[in-house]
Amino acid sequence: MVLSLSSHNVIQYLQDAGLCSSEDGASGESELPDRSKNSNLLVNLADNRKLLVKQERSNNHDETSDELFNEWLFHQLLQQFPVIGNISAIASLLIHFDEENSILVRKYLSDYQDLRNFYQTTDIYADDIASAIGSTLAGLHRATFNSREYRDFMNAAPAGQFRYHFYNPAQGIESITPEIFGTVPTEALQFYTLYQRYESLESAIADLAYEWNPCCLTHNDLQLNNILVHSRWQQLDNCLVRLIDWKSCAWGDPAFDLGTLLASYLEIWLSSLVVDSTLEIEESLHLAVTPLEVLQPSILALIRGYLNAFPMILEYRRDLILRVVQFAGLGLIHQIQGKIKCRRNFDNADICKLQFAKNLLTIPEQGVITVFGISEAEILKPVAKVHKLPQPEREKQLVRLYYEKTRLRGC
User: Fold this and answer.
1) Contact 229, 129 (CB under 8 A)
2) Domains along the sequence of the chain with CATH
3) 223-247: pLDDT as tens digits
């Protein structure tokens, strides 16, 4: 029988697992909110240490989705391959994994706060922080790029299970079935109506999924609340940020990580829109409480920090910037869907977000200028000065050796 943890028995569990003793004076356990279905318990120890205890709850079929196993697998990867484990910003915090009961214990970093909360409380969008995130992510992608050894390691599965292939996260909204009317309120059905109305949108997402090209280890859920920033980030030369919550990590496409992160920045702007029935969408976008212009320096520092640390990616993906912008649009659509599932509502602000996401997916060249404030060439220019980047091949001008209209000999 699976043990179910609560604030009443978590201390005893930690003592039985040898993670603390009665002398540690463990106390003050409290439950923390979680966006997923996991149960999170925070335990305070006498020496100012804190432990975060996660348990993955089973579904109606008494099965789990193996998210915590995946996070433990990433921990094992870092232990086995020090080249990655030495990247301080992604160093593992895990100290215990109980596969039978789906329980994971990690150190809790009291000196850090999640980046989303940091931005909300300080309204500071420092280039140093964004650049550190970009270079850290590039370090992970570069260290594992096209390495079969890392890919095979991440293909491991829990005992008695198999992984037939790596999951492609570049997916649109699932097919609409009659069951949706019992799970989604009437006002939120408008989202699915609008989504299905645009054939160009579905086509762009299908193309994005088709061209998804896994080549390195990716986080796959790199949102602002999965990034921690140190409370004294202005005084530190390194370890300004930490990337956490690796339950979705897998062998994937680096553009997806960057696009998901970009969508998280854009959400700050889009969630602050001034929306009114008398305003056009373009007016709402320009009247945001947090203007896009305030975020653009950080967004630009992020992508340039990434490219400076991993310029070789441009030899492999010359269209990286365009793909990142498209994945950002897809990330915004997933945000809307997640909100509907969680809060069960869809409002005018979400309509603006959907329209903006559609533009990023279907017109990425224009989206680059909108999001970054400059063109793709200008983004790459500082990188090109330091690193010799490949130039796109010009289309060869060939003389046609055929007739435009087919002719039959003798006619």
Assistant:
1) yes
2) 10-107 (3.30.200.20), 112-386 (3.90.1200.10)
3) 999 999 999 898 877 778 999 999 8
